[in-house]
Amino acid sequence: MSTAAIDIDHLTKTYGTRRGLTDLSLQVRKGEVFGYLGPNGAGKSTTIRTLLDLVRPTSGTVRVLGLDPRGDAVRLHRRIGYLAGDFVVDGRQKAGECLTFLAGLRGGVPPHRIAALAERLELDLDARIKSLSKGNRQKVGLVQAFMHRPELLILDEPTSGLDPLVQQTFLDMVAEARADGQTVFMSSHIMSEVEAVADRVAIIREGRLVALDAVADLRARSFLQARITFAAPVPVEEFAGLPGVTDLAVDGTTLTCRVDGSPDPLIKAAARHTVTGLRADTQDLEELFYSYYTGRADSGIAA
């Protein structure tokens, strides 16, 4: 039995002369939270729409929960909870009426389940949708995605418009879904929200996969920015050839450099002198991801 909830193999999608996706291959394992990150226009929504057969591939194949999104769309959609990046429903309805209608299309969802999700997200079910702010309309979208406890949640920019407290509630809901054995595929352009819950992360840029790894492993690739002060000036030549040391500069008694990998060689070299100060800052993951977004990082694609 396949362990993949989503299996994308050499997927390419073009819109005439415009690029959508180029030779994209990745797998999402059953029961994991998978973060799909990239700047706006990178191809995240195109990927999701292909998974749901809302757009058709130019080439390549896609399997979702072991099924073909095109040939098995009806069966497949019953097992998926989907939140579009541009969630739109009839604004004349009350939020509760809309959710009851959508629940009916799915064969019915217990009213207490809808009410409990609405309470957690602080959604007023009696408010008309056209009167709701963007963040509150997003809450309606989240409730309809989660309410039937689907095997697979596909969420496109799910925290758009939400305030920080509700964002945290959403992340708690994602963690609970994983604990219940559900799979979550979540696109975003914000690293911090994905880092909090994702098991693995893929980064897409200009329609191509540029990194795929566990969050912990991506963090291990980040570098140190070191600043060492000495009691007396030190010769730059002692540090220039050290493994992993780059961007080296010595200004009087202060040495600054970047360290990729273990800082042990740098520390041992510094210990030959009298050290009066030491500071080493780990690269922020937002900065690491920004380097992938802008193309300043090497490909980090892993299994």
Automatic annotation (TrEMBL):
Membrane topology of this protein: Peripheral membrane protein
GO molecular function (one): ATP hydrolysis activity
Entry-linked Gene3D superfamilies: P-loop containing nucleotide triphosphate hydrolases
CDD domains named among the record's database cross-references: ABC_DR_subfamily_A (cd03230)
Signal peptide stretch: none
ABC transporter domain residues: 6-231
GO biological-process terms attached to the record: response to antibiotic
Primary residence: membrane
Superkingdom of the organism of origin: Bacteria
Compartments, as annotated in UniProt: Cell membrane
Residues passing through the membrane, by range: none
Keywords, sorted A to Z: Antibiotic resistance, ATP-binding, Nucleotide-binding, Transport
GO cellular component terms, semicolon-separated: plasma membrane
InterPro entries: AAA+_ATPase (IPR003593), ABC_transporter-like_ATP-bd (IPR003439), ABC_transporter-like_CS (IPR017871), ABC_transporter_ATP-binding (IPR050763), P-loop_NTPase (IPR027417)
Membership in a protein family: Belongs to the ABC transporter superfamily.
The protein's name in its UniProt record: ABC transporter ATP-binding protein
